[in-house]
Amino acid sequence: MADKKKIMFIVNPVSGTSGKKRIQKLIKERLNKDIYDYEIVETEHVGHATELAAKAADDGTDIVCAVGGDGTVNEVASGLLHTKTALAIIPSGSGNGLARHLRIPVEPQMAIDIINKGLVQAMDYGTMNGKPFFCTCGVGFDAFISQRFAESDKRGPVTYIENVLNTSLKYHSETYDVEIVSGGDEEGQHERMKAFLISCANASQYGNNAYIAPEASVRDGMMNVIIIEPFSAIDVPQLAIQLFNGTITQNSHIKTFECRKVIIHRSKPGAVHYDGDPTEMGKDVSVELVPGGLLCVSPPKEGMPNMDERMQSFFVEHFYGVYSRTEAVIQKNLHKGQTLLNGDLIRKLSGK
Prior knowledge:
Oligomer: single chain
Structural class: alpha+beta
Distance between the termini: 63 Å
Strand content: 25-35%
Helix content: 25-40%
């Protein structure tokens, strides 16, 4: 019998949605023990997932699975670059952009089944001023929204859409000098433009099935750059619809091109985001694609699914969302009831 593969599950206990204990229980029940020896580790601080993943790769672990949202996936994947250790994902965040692009289901049992199948494929990744990203990065409005979203008490698509609609008309577009350094038909060009946002995409979506780059692939060795020009209030509903139905590149306010490297020059430092994580960077932002630098466990297909597949995914996600929220309420009430019962018992035993 062949030696078992080693897999480590890195769980972010505070990211995204609830239900991490249920996911850990499902891992123990559903993971194929004939194939894998497994270990589950919880993160303790920002950056811990990268440290754990890098150490696992050094120790010869075959797969490291991120259990969390896009931030957790980014941290784990960053520790596995250019190693023989593959990334796996059990998505449990609020956006799950890379997992959705890779067709990894948000229902954890189905995501574990993908791991049991064990198909490992190489994928590209990008860097933004040296910081790795795996889904998207950008400047302008999407970076601004990432800041707002990170500060929100609530997560999920409804909060995202609310933030977009409430702030899009108040946001002031900036002027950028876009320098295409390598790759594509427009290599060597400089263009100065006013833009609402500039998004650089390795994968097709931000998360929550918001498709900023419907044609993007993590295996084509190219980065999709999407520029949204300033628009008026009358354009907002159409842009929002096209963002979620995968036709945004057909909008007249959109310019797109493919390249390997682009440098975005702006008049002052400001907000950026990489994989939805907001931060501040200087006036010059260099974004570069690195082909095939990460191994990943995923289904054979990637990218935006067809309408039938999207409807099926919607119903699965909706059912799982309702189930998870119901389970969380039940667990909370059980805990509350147990606490009250224990308090009554202690008072009786103490005679108070």
